[in-house]
Write a structure and sequence with these properties.
It is a single chain. The protein has 129 residues and is mainly beta. It is 3% helix and 46% strand.
């Protein structure tokens, strides 16, 4: 079965940290770009961070730049999103997704979410005191 499974979400106080994991099964993550997206009820899903498959170039949304770090460990077939200095506005369901199609820029990868091949089920992140 081809799937992505996220984990690592939870409740954290403002200023705290979480690391989300995204494990791929049934396919090799090496050949896919990875995107992390988030969605709040009533709002559109937005791209948070993306990493290319070719040279590990990264892109971050302005709202998370300097606080979040996307990475991948191909040996473990896993991608990560390290989230530091969390704010209440970061509260959302976070999804990872895998993209096989070539897209010219990493920034575009974080916008063209309809191009992604596989999506995880999502993990809730709540930032609250």
């Amino acid at each position: 079965q081809l799937q992505l499974v996220e984990s690592g979400g939870g409740l954290v106080q403002p200023g705290g940290s979480l690391r989300l994991s995204c494990v791929a099964s049934g396919f090799t993550l090496d050949y896919y770009a990875i995107g992390w997206f988030r969605q709040v009820p009533g709002k559109e899903r937005e791209g948070v961070a993306c990493v290319s498959s070719s040279d590990d170039s990264t892109y971050y949304a302005d709202s998370v730049k300097g606080r979040f770090t996307i990475s991948r460990d191909n040996a473990k077939n896993t991608a990560y999103l390290q989230m530091n200095s969390l704010k209440p506005d970061d509260t959302a369901v976070y999804y990872c997704a895998a993209l096989s199609r070539y897209i010219t820029t990493v920034q575009a990868m974080c916008v063209m979410m309809y191009e992604y091949d596989y999506w995880g089920q999502g993990t809730q992140v709540t930032v609250s005191s």
